[in-house]
Structure formats: C-alpha cells, structure tokens
TrEMBL record:
This is Uncharacterized protein. InterPro entries: Homeodomain-like_sf (IPR009057).
Amino acid sequence: MRDKAERTNQKQRTRDAILDGARRLMSRGEPVTVAAAAAEHGISRATAYRYFSEPQALALEAGLATLVPPYEQVIAGTTDLRARLAAITAAMIRLTLENEPAFRQYLAHAVTAADGSSSRGARRVGYMQRALGELPHDLSAAQAADLVASLATVAGVEGLVALTDVAGRDSATAARLLGEIADAILTRHLGPASVAAADQAKPRQR
C-alpha cells in the first residue's frame, strides 16, 4: 500500500508541475499549450499528454487548482483514517459549493472533450488515496478502491449537479445531503465516527 501511495504522490507531483507551468504561462500572458506548460518544469510532451489531452482543459483546471487547499491543511488535526477521509470529502464539497460556476464550466468542457478523455477528479481521488496509504486500516485493495470511488461521487461537482439539477434541491440542502451521503459511505466501510470527528467534518452550508 505504501508503494502505491508513493506512485500516487509522484503522479500528483507531475500533474501539479504541469498545472504550475500553465499558471506561469498565464501570468506572462502567453498562450497555454500542454507542451509549453510541461516544458516549464522539464516534463516531456509525451508524459504531459498522459495527464492533459488539450490546452482548454489544462487552462481551466490550472485556474481551479489554485483554489484547492493543500493536503496538509485539509487533514490538519485528523489522526484516524475515517476522520481524515471525512475531512477531505468535506473540504472538496465546500470547495465545489463556493466555486460552483467555475466547476460547472470545467465539467461541461470535460464531458464534451473531442477525444472523450477526462482527467477530472484527480485531486480528490489523490488526496483520498494518500490518506489510505498513510494510516492503518483493514481494507483490502478492492475495498479501498471501492471506498475512494464511492466518496468521489459526492466530493465534487457531479454530486451537486445531481442533487440540484436532477433532484431539484437548493444548494444548502444539497450540501447537507452530500455530507450525509459521505458519512453513510464512511460508516459502511470504516464504522461510525465519534461525535467530535463528525462535527468537524461537516461541510459548511453557504
């Protein structure tokens, strides 16, 4: 599990470097291309295209990535796996609610990409996989993958869209329901949380 976590961390570092390269190009007023963003950190074109297939998606995500709090900030104060995953999920739900228009724009672009590829969700999944690699648990590899997949469905704009656009709930209700769904998923896989940990992990409603 540690080796897998290190591979995940390395992929995240590469992805972050490409995104940083895109932001550097933006700050200089230069066109954002996948190859140019990668070149800012000496990453090959071939490697870069495994992460981003087109510059529009890269530019959109580069802007959104600046809003994501660092992993260490998100998990601060958590000492067990359930609390850590709850904190990650709650942080991603808050981020989505606070920047809903931008995330909707990114989602719309991702689902209509010409090549059908999508790299969305890498941050939330990466954070969750990192937590699983850092703390002890009794889950098999398959169970851990199921847990991450389940949490990923509520820790992003997709879950918000389902609740607001499909189910017709307002944003405040959607925030509450996403938190309750996440709690149910965590309880199913890891058992119930303490009262203090549960209160800490609740997403704030806007």
